[in-house]
Design a protein that fits this description.
eight-stranded mixed β-sheet; Rossmann fold; about 260 residues; alpha/beta; single chain; about 40% helix
Length: about 260
């Protein structure tokens, strides 16, 4: 399996990758609030809790969680993502979030951050050494760790395969994470459910432009992308002005465990 192009995406510094996509990502997340609400409903929270959000991005989870708990610490390597988070905090009148512009692998427990009651990481597990990252998340939590990722096919609906005629790497599939945790002596709980992500565009041209940027596609692949999108985009139910929607289905997974209750590896 040749995953070279996807590996290059992963190998690009996370800050650079997300700085270029922060505003577009923030816009897409505001269109899918229901997905965030479903995730938060699965996390055990209390008013006195402190929460650490690893790879917090634009605050998709951090901001609504902050309204339910004592405080949130949001860590993200991208200045662009954290700039959006600050704007969203102001818009939502949320003040109890502390943000740290740093990669998780460079964050030192006891120096940069202290232990929190709950640690969460949602679709942010692209660390070079995932076991080391998980060990640190476990150590940073007093009560529980919650990880959100995919089960099986990533939520691009096979777009990557159509463009490049190759399968995308399954580096973040839930079973991969569970196997590492098992080797660490952590027998995590897993919940899997059907998930749908919907993105709205003013028309085909806008969809091509934005997805070309998201996937960092070379110009010679634009025709393949346009042809594929013309087949799968559907008329937006709420608009009569040519707006289109891209609906993608996948299976989401939540991996969670109580800290200080597992066996020594």
């Amino acid at each position: 399996m040749n995953c070279g192009r996807w590996r290059r995406t992963l190998d690009e510094p996370a800050a650079n990758f997300w700085d270029k996509r922060a505003k577009q990502f923030n816009e897409s997340m505001t269109q899918n609030r229901e997905r965030s609400e479903k995730q938060i409903a699965k996390i055990e929270l209390a008013p006195e809790y402190t929460v650490l959000d690893v790879g917090a991005g634009t605050g998709r989870l951090a901001i609504p969680i902050a309204k339910c708990v004592k405080s949130v610490t949001a860590i993200d390597p991208s200045r662009g993502m954290l700039a959006c988070l600050k704007e969203n905090m102001e818009r939502e009148s949320v003040e109890n979030i502390t943000h740290l512009n740093k990669k998780w692998e460079d964050t030192e427990l006891g120096v940069d951050i202290e232990q929190h009651d709950v640690v969460i990481a949602s679709h942010s597990l692209a660390m070079p050494d995932i076991q080391d990252a998980l060990v640190k998340m476990d150590a940073a939590s007093k009560k529980c760790v919650y990880l959100f990722t995919f089960a099986g096919r990533w939520m691009d609906g096979g777009l990557w395969e159509k463009i490049y005629d190759e399968k995308r790497s399954s580096w973040s599939d839930y079973i991969y994470i569970c196997n590492i945790l098992h080797d660490m002596g952590i027998y995590a709980n897993v919940e899997i459910w059907d998930s749908e992500f919907e993105q709205h565009y003013a028309g085909l041209d806008e969809a091509v432009t934005k997805l070309k940027e998201t996937y960092d596609l070379p110009s010679e692949k634009e025709g393949i992308l346009r042809g594929y999108l013309s087949k799968i985009l559907v008329d937006d139910d709420d608009d009569d002005d040519g707006a289109l929607s891209l609906k993608r289905k996948s299976k989401s997974a939540m991996i969670w465990w109580q800290t200080n209750t597992h066996e020594e590896a």
